[in-house]
Amino acid sequence: MHRTHIKAHQPWWIINWRELVEYRDLFWLTVHRDLTSIYKQSVLGPLWFVIQPIMTTLVFTVIFGNIAGMNTDNIPLFLFYQSGLVLWNYFAGVMNGAASSLISNAGVLRKVYFPRLIPPLSSVVTYLGHFCINFLLFIAVFIYFLIKGSSIHPSWWVLLLPLLILHCACVGLGAGLWLSAMTIKYRDISFALPFLTQLWMFASPVILPSSSFSNWKWLIAVNPMAGVIELFRFAFLGAGSPDKVILISSFLVGLILLGSGLLVFNRAQRTFVDTI
Amino acid sequence: MSEPAISVRGLSKRYNLGAISRHTLADEMTYLIHRIRGRNAADHMGQVRNKAPSARPYGEHAKEFWAVKDVSFDVNPGEILGVIGGNGAGKSTLLKILSRITEPTEGEAVINGRVGSLLEVGTGFHPDLTGRENIYLSGTILGMKKAEITKKFDEIVAFSEVEQFLDTPVKRYSSGMFVRLGFAVAAHLDPEILVVDEVLAVGDAAFQKKCLGKMGEVARDGRTILFVSHNMAAIENLCSHGLWLDHGRVKMLGETAPVVEQYLNTSQAMTESVSLRDRTDRRGSGRARIVNFFVTNDTNCRQAVLRPGNTYRFHLECELNSPGPTLQNVFAAVDLKDHRNETVWLVSSAFTHEAKTLGRGITELVCTAPDFNLAEGTYKATLYLTCGVNDHLDQISNAAEISVEGGDFFGTGSKGSPTHCRTLTRASWSTLSL
């Protein structure tokens, strides 16, 4: 028989994985809810999944590429910004989704118990959906430029793509869990979040290639997102110079971030309804 | 008997007053800076708090509040435990701990069986999704498997009576439909232990009846239920045992009837009498107000205690506040409720079409009721004053407490059966040979 033991001061390092598996149906329905309800009652509906990334890339191309004339390592402008944004958007989506998961679900969490890890975990898959659309768009543009004969040189490194995606999920979820645990205590975080996301993007080779960070090399080294974005671009377009040491260290940072995020979140979720 | 379904030992929950959602980074920074500068940070925060009462208290300055303190009890499988107590007695906190929404500060509880908690109707509904999608979403949030929901889907829909609108987003639902669908999902949860808060307070009377019926059905299936309610009739009808919480502690635990009785006696003693003129908890337009109420016998002597069988006069002194010289077409009613808050006696001038006219100043409306037929006990009077049928002038609940004692209604010394039936009825018996 099912047996639940409710006790004061449960150890903070114990995460009930079996319970998470029991609630897998809720996990998938949450993903489904977040994917289907987002653009309901908008005229263009799911078309927004396509319009949003294209518009962002277009804006970047015009502002940073054409007007500011920033360095793009001789890659076609549109493709350059798109290649940077594909992984970045996935990471930022997961991080923001996870960070706001407790607050935005507070109404439900106050009334019923289910594993609180479900909402942040589901944002990993929800934004994977967004990522797939984004990535297909990228491939279409990529093929267009390939046929057109632009100087892009894909390499076997593209096979590492699943690992790169996994890494973005780890960093995004890890950071998101930290932020979400801290938001319970300090509401300030939720105001700082958009700003923080933007700063982080500027510190990653999304707009500028890492070769332009000459005096700020350390920023690339400590930023767990920098190495993978650079590698993605190198794998598909043959531009830039991914650094193996930086890559391995970012993978490690990603894992540490995820592990510590899980524990901090686990500690915070137990009594968060009292303070929220 | 086998292991208890719920076993609670020394459960306590502490809240820090003032610490709720007042945490800002700025607060923390000020605290830190003052510590670095070697000042007594707690003192400083104390000063800050004097200026801004909502600031976060530190150290000993924090005010503690035990919502639940040292609560222990067992619930055996198949038992229905009704939890009663005034506002802030800790009922909801107890339910929150047992349904794992929050953690206790001290103590523990062991629950044998799958728990379904129902603290709200329509938990997890997303306004943009259709009724169909929400059945699945809400069901899984409440702990059901998708396959279980599919199996019971038709039943849920039938219970909710919203078949036609299954593919409409629930934000277009009327509040009644929303509640019905929400409860339908919850009612088809299949847990061994059900934790229910006052969710029955929503919906219309017919639906509430349906909900209570469903709960009774669940109970007969031998499942364990923990039920919090202010509705004593529902508690007495459904529950086998009662738990009375008072200021977070267990005041009484046992069979339902004595616990409820004891609880009601205590809470009634606490209602203080305020002069009707000063009462603010009234409803109605106030164009005319009831300013005094008393009962006399047929020789106009005021009565403190009524006896069944006598004739009584109920006096309502009404004051006219509207401009005109008089107010016509005024009706009054006196409604007596028993300790379960159910009306057992009602007189109204509207029943007999006796419209009265109120003059300037104070007019006394008198209702003469012969052969008073309520059994021993205490009753609370609710007074109504209307103009026509629909224009409510004034309404006061618990305007007075009426005690009925002794008397010899039947002329035999019998008091009837006051705990069983509140009214006394004259009747004669005979035999007919067929």
The averaged pLDDT of chain B comes out at 82
Structure classification of chain A:
mainly alpha
The general outline of chain B is: globular
| Elements of chain B, N to C (H/E) | EHHEEHEEHHHEHEHEEHEEEEEEEEEE
Count of DSSP-assigned helices of chain A: 13
Shape of chain A: globular
SS class of chain B: alpha/beta
Number of structurally distinct domains of chain B: 3
**Distance between the first and last residues' Cα of chain B:** 53 Å
Helix content of chain A: 55-70%
What value does the Rg of chain B take, in angstroms? 28 Å
How much of the sequence of chain A is in beta strands?
Answer: under 5%
Q: Name the beta content range of chain B.
A: 25-35%
Structure, explained:
The complex is a heterodimer of chains A (276) and B (434). With 276 residues, chain A is mainly α. Chain A is built from 13 helices and one strand, in the order βααααααααααααα. Chain A has one domain. In chain A, helix 3 crosses helix 7, helix 4 runs antiparallel to helix 7 and helix 4 runs antiparallel to helix 9. Chain B folds into three domains: 62 residues, no CATH class; 199 residues, 3-Layer(aba) Sandwich (Rossmann fold), CATH 3.40.50; 129 residues, abc- transporter (atp binding component) like domain (Coagulation Factor XIII, Chain A, domain 1). In chain B, strands 10, 12, 14, 15, 16, 18 and 19 form a seven-stranded mixed beta sheet that branches. A six-stranded mixed beta sheet of chain B has the order 5-6-7-3-8-9, sandwiched between helices. A three-stranded antiparallel beta sheet of chain B has the order 2-1-4, with helices on one face. In chain B, helix 1 crosses helix 2, helix 4 crosses helix 5 and helix 5 packs across helix 6. The chains are: A mainly alpha (276), B alpha/beta (434). Chains A and B meet through strand 1, helix 2 and helix 13 of A and helix 1, helix 3, strand 4 and helix 4 of B.
